[in-house]
Amino acid sequence: MRLRHIEVFHAIMQVGTISGAAQVLHISQPAVTKVLQHAELQLGMPLFERVRGKLYPKPEAHRLFVETEKLNRDLQGIRRLAASLKGRAVETIRLVSTPTIAISVLPAAMSAWRRDFPATRCELATFHTSEIVNALRLGEADLALSLQDPRHPGIVAEPIAQGVMTVIAPAGSWSAADSLLPVSADGLSGELIGHADNDPLGDMVVAACEEQGVHPVFHTVVQTYQIARSLVEAGAGMAVVDPFTAASAIDSKVQRRAWAPAIPVQLFLLTASHSPLSHGARELANSIGATARACIE
């Protein structure tokens, strides 16, 4: 029996009439009759007895129903899955990002991408990297952005932009000549804004300071680089932040200098190893990479 024969056969077994099967399958009654007749012709035997417009399955039909029931369920499942995948790939892209990149890079990148994909729905959420890994593994996100490579066997980490940790200070903190040169730990002065103890980049900065014989004291400690940037813009002190956050600071309120010795920072595109990106998602990733690289050049 062909797949169409099985669908019609199962519909008739469930509702007992040609008209009922036609309604279930959203086709005409003559089409149901024609498919059933063709199936019986192929099998070489009638499957139903016709009595006053109702169809009564013969013993052979019951046996056939048992054998084909699983195949019919699988067929329906495949069709639902195909419809779901098509709808998600064409209409919805689920992007998760760490807050740093969501604020500093994504607005311009999304604006550029939207010109070519005006009708594509994009759902954006902000997570920390550990939460991002879970979202990708569970199929709750299509792609993600982080300044960390989680080094997880089920996650592909693709570097799409690279810069260096950057010192930001309130405008007027350095001369024009000094602002062109990198600054090391002994060049930090005034109030220092620190990062939470579990922040990997913040830990690298503290370690670099201690290697230079400087033990920084932080009276203000923040959870995100954006808060540090806002405090610096308000004149509350200096901070060492990622290059993307530094680039997004207001020029009239902030000065920037590269940290020495340089601490490289990469922006990673994260995806689940078993889930290739749709065309729209890949183009969004390309736009994010191009925007990130442009903002730190």
Automatic annotation (TrEMBL):
Record flagged with keyword Oxidoreductase: no
Pfam families in the record: HTH_1 (PF00126), LysR_substrate (PF03466)
Membrane-crossing residue ranges in chain numbering: none
GO molecular-function terms, A-Z: DNA-binding transcription factor activity; sequence-specific DNA binding
GO biological-process terms attached to the record: lysine biosynthetic process via diaminopimelate; positive regulation of gene expression
PROSITE patterns in the record: HTH_LYSR
Recorded coiled-coil stretches: none
Protein keywords: DNA-binding, Transcription, Transcription regulation
SUPFAM superfamilies reported in the protein's UniProt record: Periplasmic binding protein-like II, Winged helix' DNA-binding domain
Residues in HTH lysR-type domain copies: 1-58
InterPro entries per record: LysR_HTH_N (IPR000847), LysR_subst-bd (IPR005119), WH-like_DNA-bd_sf (IPR036388), WH_DNA-bd_sf (IPR036390)
Family: Belongs to the LysR transcriptional regulatory family.
Name of this protein: Transcriptional regulator
Organism expressing this protein natively: Massilia eurypsychrophila
